[in-house]
Amino acid sequence: MLEHTLRTYQSPTRLVQRLGAIRELGNEAGLLGMRRPLLVTDPGVKAAGLLDTALEALRGSDCEPVVFDRVKANPGVELVDAGAAEYRTQGCDGLVAIGGGSSMDTAKGIGVVAAHDGSILDYEWGHSPLKSRIPPMIAVPTTAGTGSEVTLWAVITDPKRKIKFNVGGTPNIAAWVALIDPELSVRLPPPVTAGTGMDALAHAIECFTMVYHQPFTDAVALLAMEYVARYLRVAFSQGENLQARYYMSAAAMLGGLSYGTDSAGAAHAMSQTAGGVHDAPHGALTARLLGPVMEYNHAGEPERFARMAAAFGLDTRGVTLWRAAEMAVEYVHQLTVDVEIPSMQELGFAEDEIPMLADKAFADPQTIGNPRDVNAAAYRRIYARAFELGSGRKNLEKTR
């Protein structure tokens, strides 16, 4: 059936991607008129020496950055608001984020508050609109997963409500430039490579199957799936394999582009809300939930799940549509095992929390994008399956 619902797509972010692209950081900052950017990063990036590389590139182009290196995983409201205060106090004229999704989301949030005043809480999706574009911002990812360098969203934690909330859904929050240097990811330890890579896959899968999909998002999502299927295991096993790092960086970027202005589906509704309850790594948590969500969802979009099987490189010739859809689900289950994603228990969750986690997921706005109707009871079944799979049991009965 032809789609008559209005769909739009806009990405204002300029892409700069190649090995060694970090050396272009100062030039890109100069092109945006930056002279005193706030450089937003985390202690891990600093310890790895990547902050020094970024500072050298910026200072070589007559920039004198102000370093804000207090970012933590799952950045909270207080951190973002403190960063915005620092931006104003120091008289900054732009933003540079170097790190994973937490650093980039923090920088976006700082930009929102700097452009609009108040607190980042005021701009939770569905509250005050983003009327102005954030100040000039360059996003430099050091992981290959979140795609935050190109998304129109930032995810912020509210510890008081124990939830994560979205800010954005508009080009006004997008980075002005995404500077993607795959060499920056070669030092990632295998668990981080696995979690972030599976997060990129989850973006592609959920955006390919979400009710808001459109031709452009379909195209980039499918290519992201192909890259992850071919290169994640290699990047996980050979950290310094530049070819694998290059294509995983591309997969993360493409997965981010597949969002457009819309949300994803049940896997992200679950991982974002659960990540507000326990401070678990977002990528690993999303990965642990992705397979069970796919088990539940494939009945809603069997044609799309069958197409995913082909993107994964599976031979679907001579099999039924339903069998091909199941093959895609099985592939993701096996990939989750191959890259050693932790169990729900290892991520800090307990089975007696399932009712509470399910209720939080059902309340998340990303639920409405899911390709199969889902309620709190269904979320309880999906969570139970996630705990079961992570426990090492061999029961292959599908979630129904």
List the helices and strands in order: EHEHHEHEHEEEEHHHHHHHHH
Helix content percent band: 40-55%
**Integer average pLDDT:** 94
> Which architecture of the largest domain would the CATH scheme give at its second level?
Up-down Bundle
Distance between the termini: 27 Å
Largest sheet: 6 strands, parallel
The CATH class assignment of the largest domain is Mainly Alpha
- Radius of gyration in whole Å, from Cα? 20 Å
SS summary, helix count: 14
The count of strands amounts to 8
User: What's the CATH H-level superfamily name of the largest domain?
Assistant: Dehydroquinate synthase-like - alpha domain
Strand order of the largest sheet: 1-8-5-4-2-3
Low-confidence stretches: 393-400
For this structure, the CATH topology of the largest domain is Dehydroquinate synthase-like, alpha domain
How many domains make up the 3D coordinates?
Answer: 2
Structural class: alpha/beta
β-strand percent reads 5-15%
Shape annotation: globular
What's the short story on this structure?
The chain has 400 residues and is an alpha/beta fold.
Keywords:
400 residues, alpha/beta, Rossmann fold, Dehydroquinate synthase-like, alpha domain, 2 domains, 6-stranded parallel β-sheet, 48% helix
